[in-house]
Amino acid sequence: MSRIERGGANPSLDAIESLAEALGVEVKTLFETPSINALTESKAPVRVPFADDGTCFNPSVKRKRTGMFNVGGKGKGNVKRFVDFDEALAYLKSMPTARWWRPNEIGNWGLVTAIRWGALPKKY
User: Fold this and answer.
1) Number of domains in the chain
2) Is the same domain home to 75 and 109?
């Protein structure tokens, strides 16, 4: 079995049938791959910070011009820039109070402060 798992041997049909019987499944189950939906449904939701206006940190707050997420407070040296959403989110989680930059309804960029954490909405 270890050689089969490592790709060093191919199982015979008898071995496949024995394995399926030992696992209590049909032979065809050994050849099925989980669907994308099954993989995504089993994952825990991504938790993100939300501002008091109901907006949250999400992949769309990446600046189009630079392609970066800006997190952190005002002032020189306080803003950190990340290309990767997950890295920016990890940094936000490490902050005492999460703060990030995002555009308002007219497109001007401003600093927002988290008031709570919750699941990232499915639209993102």
Assistant:
1) 2
2) yes
Q: Could you tell me the pTM of the whole model?
A: 0.63
Which neighbouring-strand residues pair with 99? 113
Q: Distance of alpha carbon 82 from its chain centroid, rounded?
A: 15
Please state whether 92 falls in left (phi above 0), alpha (psi between -120 and 50) or beta: alpha
Q: Which domain holds residue 16?
A: 2-32
Answer yes or no: is 41 within a domain.
Answer: no
Task: List average pLDDT for each run of 10 residues in the chain, which is 124 residues long.
Answer: 78 88 84 64 82 94 91 86 95 95 87 95 88
